[in-house]
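Batch manifest, entry 17 of 40.
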Amino acid sequence: MITNKTFNEINIGDTASLERTLTKRDVDMFAVISGDMNPTHLSDEYAQMLLERQKVSGHSMWGGALISSLLGNDLPGPGTVYKSQHLEFHGALELEDTLTVSITVKEKRAAENTVIFDCQAVNQRNEEIISGIAEVRAPSKKASGAGVAAHDLTYHARHAFRDLIEKVQDDDPISVAVAHPCSKAALEGAIDAARADIIEPVLVGPGARIRQLADELEIDISHYELVDSPHSHASAAEAVSLCRGGRTESLMKGSLHTDEFMSAILKKETGLRTASRVSHVFILDVPTYPRPLFLTDAAINIYPDLEGKIHIVNNAVSLAHALGIETPRVAILSAVETINPKIPSTLEAASLCKMADRGQIAGAILDGPLAFDNAISKEAALIKGIQSEVAGQADIFVVPDLEAGNMLAKQLTYLIDADAAGIVVGARVPVILTSRADSARARLTSCAVAAAAAMAKRTGAKGINASV
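Output type: structure tokens
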């Protein structure tokens, strides 16, 4: 329900605030929408050449737009009309800076229901970035109704990962064995998650090399445990051993090859195997889909058979439970929505659905085979005469094989700018399997997903009671 404050309800000193982190996507979208294609906002090379900055910075008016959103959404809220805005910019908006924007009622004038606001934006270092004065005409009528639902917009405002990060920050950080963090991305990814109070890292690798890298990056690692190991193979084995012995609750890949990392996890005698087969789950926040999209398996099982897909489904369902989705809807994907003996994935989909009907797969609603358009769009399913509880509202998408899943995940990430996180499930602990191409944001959100899974295991609860 929408709400606002009319002129008569507003008092001197009333205040509202919001917090927003500036991402590369925000910069790119603001450039497109505003037409401000100043290359210092889009290219590190130009930022270094023209402004002597190491990296691009955000548009100053992006911060100004946040002030506008506070006035229009919160105080006074819907019905507010801008009369004037004066802003002063005191510093650069750096990527991944978190701005806290606040407005405070300074003055009221009866003429035209005018309200004057003090405006301010500070970053996470408490540095003032923007200050100013806004003059608006406050609404005279009280708002009523449901407003515009976020999922009715073509490009969704995405808060899933932000909300998940905030939720896991409410609990104690999970302990994570970080295997061989000997590259900039690997070390920074672990330390960023530690600074965000999501993980407590145990750095496993060549001690001298890690310390040298930390010094070069000006990162203080003195607060974190460092377990010395001579090389990447030993780092993987030692990190797995820490998890196997219960000293750490999760495992994170550093700068070693995925095959080497997974080999240590899957060893029968010394690894982290369970009765379940391990599988990978991508969680994607897609701008054109109104809920987080779980995609599995796109990284571990190459051509899973029916037995393998049973494990893949159960692992994904358990992860969805840990992230607060009580009864996830599972779409078993194929090229078509009909059962065709010449397409094995359609037969496997039918078998999985019948197993769910008879309680062999529990805790979720399954449907399949579904082509991707039917799974993602209720309208497409209805046109084809498909009556389904899953179509158009699926949470989990089970792909036929790794090739299909990997291509789909990368299409969503690179073509429509989906946020992505991913972990390996089915082992004794959640495994944060990062890629060298992952952004800092992707590494942080992957840690948050692993933290939610570990916290559910820690407490024995079904989930963290907050849907992503």
